[in-house]
Amino acid sequence: MASSNTTTTGVDNTFRKKFDTEEYRERARERENKESDRSKSRSKGPPVQRAPLKHRDYHVDLESRLGKTQVVTPVAPLSQQAGYFCRVCECVVKDSANYLDHINGKKHQRALGMSMRVERSSLEQVQERFEVLKKRKTPGTFTEQDLDERIRKQQEEEEELKRQRREKKKEKKKGKVMEEEPEMDPEVAEMMGFGGFGSSKKS
Fold first, then answer.
1. What's the alpha-carbon Rg for the chain, to the nearest Å?
2. For the stretch 192-201, what's the b/e string if a residue is b when 16 or more beta carbons lie within 10 angstroms of its beta carbon?
3. Distance of CA 22 to CAs 11, 16, 18, 28, 163, Å?
4. Is residue 170 over pLDDT 80?
5. Which residue of 54, 63, 124, 202 has the fewest C-beta atoms within 10 A of its own C-beta?
6. How do residues 17-41 score in pLDDT, each as one tens digit?
7. What span, in angstroms and rounded, lies between the C-alpha atoms of 7 and 9?
C-alpha cells in the first residue's frame, strides 16, 4: 500500500468562543461614563423642602354613597367608578379603610407637598389649644347622674323589647294552634265518625 504525500491542515475543533477584549473594555468605559453623568445630574438640584404635616381642615366623606346603586362600566372615568376616588393622586380605592390609609399615607401627603414629620409645638401654642378646648366644653354638661339615668333608660328599653318579642312569639303560637285545629260542623264531624271518640252514647 502506497503512502500518500498529501498533508492535511489542522481543524479548529475546540468550539471555544473568542472574545474581543478591546471591544468589551470600550463598552465598560462607556457604561462607567453614563453612570457618572447620571449621578451628577441627580445631585445638581437642591433637596426638596416639604411642609410639616398639618391637621386636616375638611370632612372626609365616607357615607354619601353608602347604600346607593351605581352602574359601573369599564370605559367610565376613574371618578365615576366603584370605590373612593382620590383627586390628588388620581386613583380609585375600593373600600373606606384602604381610602383612609391612602389619604393618611406618605404618597398622598407628598403629593400635597407635606412630609410625614410633625411640627414641634411651642408652649404658647399648647396653652392656646387648651384655652380653645375649655371654651368649647361648657361646664356641667355631663355628670355621673346623667350616666346612671342613661344606663337606666337603656335597660328599660331592652326590657320593653324583650317583652314585645315574647308577646309576638305567643301570638304566633296561638295562630299555629288555630290553623292546626280548624272548626268543623258538628253534624259533618259525626257523619265522618269524629264525634264519638271516647264517649258513650245514651239511648
1. 44
2. eeeeeeeeee
3. 26, 18, 12, 10, 97
4. yes
5. 202
6. 777 788 889 999 999 988 887 776 6
7. 7
